[in-house]
Structure formats: structure tokens, C-alpha cells
Design goal:
It is built from 21 helices and 20 strands. It is of the alpha/beta class. The strands form 3 sheets. A 9-stranded mixed beta sheet has the order 1-2-3-5-4-8-9-10-11, sandwiched between helices. A 9-stranded mixed beta sheet has the order 12-13-14-16-15-17-18-19-20, sandwiched between helices. Strands 6-7 form a two-stranded antiparallel ribbon. The longest helix has 22 residues, at 23-44.
Length: 700
């Protein structure tokens, strides 16, 4: 019976053979659990202060290194402080300082009236509220603190309040504020081995510098608090800044293991590359502060699940006991959802009263009148980028970092140096992608589950295991009248076999060359597509792909790397087929999948031909493009730190002697690359790499 091309796509559960909708999350969770077991065992063996402090120092070094380091120099703050409001018992000043040259931080300084001597200073770091320091619940914390004789500096984080990093005076928000903006800029940071967390941390460190410089503040009595994203910042500052005397991170602390099961996504600054692999967990932020006074504020009904909070608290309490300081760590749990509630506010103020003022914890919350957001503006317009058009943004800071760490390119002078280059780069890629190439030795047992009559063509639907726990699907299509031993092409589409109907023309053109065509589904795609694991759409920011990519990052790898491995396993399957000429296997990739194809060809020298269509031509172009296209550039193609090693063009020499064709190379904006940009980023480099071999074919 003659069937249509759509019949080569798979129905759910691989046409009823296997339940694979959850295999990718399950694979990641399984890998993570092995690391968690190792981490908890290591922590359970800590019996002395010396053993703990060795680990604390190691974790601190790892954290600072994996976020890309912190600035070595503290440049002048150039602060501008002026009186904004006089209230009964305190004054509010507007503050503007430069945490880095021309990188402005907006804040509010609350100072009690009639101070007779130095008092304690509190840095308040805002969570994910658009109005940030002016958000009413956050104002209430600051007002209660100042009325209890604390000096308080509340600052806007990047992407919120008056610090939107993609603000245009005419268009407004070019990129959505807050969490979206954090992860948008965060992706560019990852590419050069940074994490956008370093920006939040440095703003906070310089905020503490500002407080310490105030004549009203005792530099030996500094506290930090914040909720949600502010809880994140508080936790990070506890780890890296030893000047903090007491801290109260709220509605953030849980444990990585418990949080993984929720399916919820974190912002880029909360996803630390290698954190699970190297054992950096939430409790490590708590124990890093031992034996100083630490209050953990939690919400019983939070999405930062309370089970994880309790686990981290118990670990922290045990470490504090090594110092005889169990009374210096405390957990308070409010009966509410995610918020900096009145209950937590009262607890935090009393904690600081006791540990920074030596006063009794007698404070009780009461009704507070807060100011309108507009009243609390630091800038005239309400946005730094409007008042200071020449100011820097996180994009500029990351670009500055890139220009400092950009590796030098070597010259390939002859075939011997080319061979050495190929060998070294292949090893480097395998290490960077964290690939276990030994898994390629596992035998493949393909299951051809149906044969489809397409008239002049035959189609086969099949599946096999890429590695234990990971099933891949694919459809093989070939001409009935072809030769016994055919050349073959692995074909990769962004949506895998789901795209066969729409991509018939490409497939037919390859078959007309007498190729056997193998349309392969890498993990999470096509016949083995992943189900939604949270409310966002699968490919949206904060959706399933986003979440799983960041989980993989914390394992020290990437979903990109896992999919490249799957392509290699697709090759391993093809060379075993009786009707395939193993010496004439090629690969075709389109859109995002073209990069999977490209890296697979780079790693597998037996792939003799490559066609790459609509492929992103440069990771560096992403770093240099302030407003990039997330349909082209997203977590699916992200390899943390890749540019510290090489860009795409630096891998082209590894394809020497093979037939390579690039069709419609794409830049970070999703546009076909211009001749000028191609000359700048590719041709000038290829000329350096290609003194003795032919250049690839580039079709504009």
C-alpha cells in the first residue's frame, strides 16, 4: 500500500514501542543523583573544623573561578548622594555609584536621625520585582530596619528598577525586564566562561564598600539580606565577602536535588556551571558563613521547596556545631507562599538587633506607609540608560572581558602541523563537551519497526539505544533501484523526523544522488521528543529545553554535547548496514541541528562530506551582538566557555581533505551573513589556517 511521507514520522511512544517522553530528564536526574550521593558522603565525613575549612576554601575557589572571576581592582565609586525625603525619625537619600567605571548602580540610603555614634549597616539586595528597591514589601524591610537604628542601603539589581540593561528611550524595554533579561545576557556570559552572577556579586561588594565609607556605619557590623533573587545575592555574598558580620537570605535556600524534581527553571545567575558535578549546593552558601550569625528565612509553601531547605539547614547546623555555634544559625519558616512577608521581616529585624546591636529581639511589625515608586527615583527619567546614554551595560562588560581573554590563534604552516592541530583540537573538544567516547563501543541493536512504501522510494522506521537509557529514532529512505552498497547521508533537522513531510525536497535531492538518507532524531527531538516538565512551552525561555540545558550545565556538560554524541551514534549505526558504503558517508544539518552535524563531522573523520544550511557561523558574533535572535541563539547550541578554546571557524581545518559546503550561513541576528562579516570572521582566519589545502564551499 502506497503511503505518504508523513507516515515516516513517529506517533507517541515510538509508535507504541517505548515510553521515551521522559527519558532526557530521567537521564539528567540519574547522572545528578550519582553526584549528589558523592557530595553528601563527602560532607558526612567532615569531623573537624580543619576538614571543613579545607572544603570551604576549595568551594570558594571553584565558585569564583566558574563564574569567570571577580574584578581585581576596586575603581572609584564616584558616588552621588543627595537627600530625597525626610520622614519622622529617618531620612532617605538617593544614591548613584559606579561599581565599575560607567556601570551605574541606583540605590536608596536610609539613615536614622540623631545617631550618637556609629551603627550597623545593612545591604538590602532586591528580589525579582520590577520596581526592585521601591517594591512595597522591600521598602517595609528597609523602613523597619532604619527605625531600629540601622543604616540601610537598598540597591537595584541589573534588569530591574532603574537598571534595565536593554532600555531604549524611544522603544522602552527592548528585552523584557528581570528574569528574562538576566538569562538573555547570561547566555552571552556563558560563552566566554563567565556567569552573569559576577555582576550581581560585584554590585553588592561595592555596595558594602559604600556603606563602610559612610561615617555613620561601623565597618565591623555589616549585615546583608534579601528575598528570592535577593536571597541568591545574599548567599553569594556570604561566600565571597568576609566583611559581612550577619546575614539573612530569605526564600531562596533549598537543595539542588529537591529542586530538580520540581521541573522549574532558574535564572542564568542561579545556574552555576559544574555546581552539581563539583558538589556546590545551597548548604555550602550557609556553611561558608560559619560561625557567623545566619538566619535562613523560608516560606512553607514556596516553590523553593521546604524539604530542600530543611536538608540544607540540618547540614549547616552540623557544621556550625564544629565551632560550638549552633545558636548562631537559625531557620524561620513563615506560613505562606514565596514572599518577604511580615513574618520574615520581623524575624530578620530581630536577628540583626540581637547580633549586630546586642539588643533584645523585641521588635514587632506594624502597619507601614510606603512611598510611590516615582517618588523614590534616583535618576530623572527613571532609567540609568536614559540619563546616562554612554553608560556601560552587562553586555559591554562581558565584551570587555572577552577582549581580555580572547585566545591567540596559531598558524598552520604545513601538513604536519595540520595533523597535530587536528589531533589536539579533537581531544580538546571531547574534554570541553565532556563526552565519554568509550560509550561508542557499546553494540547497537537496531529495531526496524515498519517498512513504508513511498512509490519509487522505500522508507524504514527504526530505533536503537545511543547509550543506556537513551533511545533514538530515525527514518531511512532510499531509492528502490539504487545500488546494493550506497553512499549515505545522515540528515538532521531541528525537529527531526517530525520535519520529514516539510523537508521532502531536501531529502529527495539527496536520494537522487543515489544516497541512502537517514533522518535521525537526537534525544529530546522528533520521535523521542521530550514532554513539557513545567508550564512554559518546551522551547520558550524557562521552558523544558531551557531547564534541561541548565541542569546539564550544572553536571559539567550540555544538552548540545549530548546531542552531538547521538549524531556520532547515528554514524555508528549506519556503518553497520549492509546496504551502506562505509567509506562514503556524509552528513546534512539544517538550522540549529546544523551545529550538531558540524561538530559530529569534526569529531568523526570517517564522515567524508558535510552540508550545513542556515548554520550559526560564529559564537563570537553572539557575544558581540547586543540584541541577538533567540530563535537562532539559545540554550540548545550553548557550550559554556567554548570561546576560551575556539570559535566555529577554528574547527574548519579539522575538515581538511573532505567535501564541505556551507549554505546560507546565519549571524546572531538570524540574518544571512554579509560578505563583509564573512571576510572579517571567516576568510581572514581561514587564510591563516589554509596555506596548503582547499577552502570550503560557501554559498551565500
Amino acid at each position: 500500500m502506497l503511503k505518504n511521507w508523513k507516515s515516516l514520522s513517529f506517533s507517541p511512544f515510538i509508535d507504541g514501542y517505548y515510553d521515551t517522553e521522559n527519558q532526557l530528564p530521567a537521564y539528567i536526574y540519574r547522572k545528578a543523583r550519582n553526584y549528589f550521593r558523592r557530595e553528601y558522603e563527602e560532607k558526612s565525613l567532615i569531623k573537624t573544623r580543619e576538614e571543613f575549612e579545607e572544603r570551604r576554601n576549595r568551594i570558594r575557589r571553584f565558585f569564583i573561578n566558574t563564574i569567570g572571576g571577580l574584578p581585581e581592582e576596586k575603581t572609584p565609586l564616584n558616588d552621588r548622594t543627595s537627600l530625597l525625603i525626610e520622614k519622622n525619625g529617618y531620612k532617605i537619600y538617593k544614591v548613584l555609584y559606579e561599581s565599575l567605571p560607567k556601570f551605574y548602580v541606583t540605590g536608596l540610603l536610609y539613615i536614622p536621625e540623631k545617631l550618637e555614634s556609629e551603627t550597623a549597616g545593612i545591604l538590602f539586595v532586591s528580589g525579582h520585582a520590577k520596581s526592585a528597591k521601591a517594591y512595597p514589601p522591600y521598602q517595609k524591610v528597609c523602613i523597619d530596619l532604619v527605625q531600629n537604628e540601622f543604616v540601610v542601603l537598598a540597591i537595584d539589581p541589573i534588569g530591574q528598577g532603574e537598571r534595565l540593561q536593554y532600555w531604549d528611550p524611544k522603544k522602552g524595554e527592548v528585552i523584557r525586564w528581570g528574569t528574562y533579561e538576566h538569562s538573555y545576557a547570561g547566555l552571552q556570559h556563558y560563552l566566554i566562561g563567565n556567569n552573569i552572577a559576577k555582576r550581581f556579586i560585584w554590585d553588592g561588594i561595592r555596595g558594602i564598600d559604600y556603606l563602610i565609607e559612610r561615617k555613620e556605619v561601623d565597618p565591623k557590623r555589616i549585615g546583608v539580606t534579601g528575598s528570592s533573587g535577593g536571597g541568591t545575592q545574599t548567599s553569594y555574598l556570604m561566600l565571597v565577602d568576609e566583611r559581612i558580620s550577619a546575614a539573612a537570605p530569605c526564600t531562596y535556600i533549598t537543595s539542588r536535588e529537591e529542586y530538580m524534581y520540581t521541573g522549574q527553571a532558574h535564572d542564568a545567575e542561579q545556574n552555576i556551571f559544574g555546581a552539581i558535578k563539583y558538589g556546590l549546593n545551597y548548604d555550602d552558601f550557609l556553611t561558608s558563613f560559619a560561625p557567623k550569625p545566619l538566619l535562613i528565612g523560608a516560606a512553607a509553601y514556596d516553590f523553593f521547596c521546604i524539604e530542600g531547605t530543611l536538608k540544607s539547614y540540618n547540614i549547616a547546623k552540623r557544621i556550625y556545631s564544629l565551632y560550638g555555634a549552633e545558636d548562631k544559625v537559625k531557620l524561620v519558616v513563615g506560613p505562606h507562599v514565596h514572599m518577604y512577608s511580615d513574618y520574615l521581616r520581623e524575624s530578620v529585624v530581630n536577628w540583626f538587633r540581637v547580633h549586630l546591636m546586642e539588643l533584645e529581639p523585641t521588635f514587632k511589625v506594624d502597619k507601614i506607609n510606603v512611598e510611590d515608586e516615582d517618588t523614590l527615583r534616583v535618576t530623572a527619567s527613571g532609567q540609568v540608560l536614559e540619563d546616562f546614554p554612554s553608560s556601560k551595560t552587562v553586555y559591554h562588560l562581558n565584551l570587555d572581558d572577552w577582549n581580555r581573554v580572547k585566545p591567540m590563534r596559531q598558524k598552520i604552516g604545513d601538513l604536519k602541523s595540520l595533523e597535530r592541530y587536528i589531533k589536539d583540537k579533537r581531544r580538546e573538544i571531547i574534554e570541553l563537551l565532556y563526552l565519554d567516547m568509550n560509550l561508542r563501543d557499546n553494540e547497537i541493536y537496531p529495531r526496524i519497526i515498519s517498512t513504508v512504501n513511498l512509490g519509487e522510494y522505500i522508507g524504514e522506521k527504526l530505533f536503537f539505544f545511543s547509550e543506556p537509557g537513551i533511545t533514538l529514532t530515525g527514518s531511512v529512505i532510499y531509492n528502490k533501484n539504487g545500488n546494493r552498497k550506497r553512499p549515505a547521508m545522515i540528515v538532521l533537522f531541528e525537529n527531526g523526523t517530525d520535519s520529514i513531510e516539510d523537508e521532502r525536497s531536501i531529502i529527495k535531492s539527496l536520494i537522487r544522488e543515489d544516497n541512502l538518507v537517514f533522518v535521525l532524531d537526537v534525544r529530546g527531538v522528533g520521535g523521542v521528543k521530550v514532554r513539557k516538565i513545567n508550564p512554559a512551552e518546551v522551547n520558550e525561555i524557562y521552558g523544558t529545553e531551557f531547564r534541561l540545558a541548565y541542569d546539564a550545565f550544572m553536571l559539567g556538560t550540555s544538552t548540545f554535547a549530548l546531542r552531538v554524541f547521538d549524531v556520532l551514534r547515528g554514524f555508528d549505526y549506519l556503518i553497520k548496514r549492509d546496504d551502506v558504503d562505509a567509506n562514503r558517508i556524509g552528513i546534512y544539518g539544517k538550522d540549529i541541528a546544523s551545529l550538531y552535524a558540524f561538530f559530529a563531522m569534526v569529531l568523526e573523520p570517517r564522515i567524508k562530506r558535510g552540508i550545513f544550511e542556515n548554520m550559526l557561523f560564529s559564537y563570537e558574533d553572539v557575544v558581540e551582538t547586543r540584541i541577538y535572535n533567540r530563535k537562532i541563539v539559545n540554550e540548545k547550541i550553548l557550550v559554556p566557555g567554548i570561546l576560551k578554546h575556539f570559535d566555529i571557524v577554528d574547527l574548519i581545518p579539522m575538515l581538511a581533505g573532505r567535501k564541505v559546503e556551507f549554505r546560507k550561513l546565519i549571524d546572531a541576528k538570524g540574518r544571512i551573513v554579509t560578505k563583509e562579516k564573512l571576510e572579517e570572521k571567516w576568510n581572514s582566519v581561514i587564510d591563516r589556517y589554509y596555506p596548503v589545502i582547499n577552502k570550503p564551499t560557501i554559498i551565500m
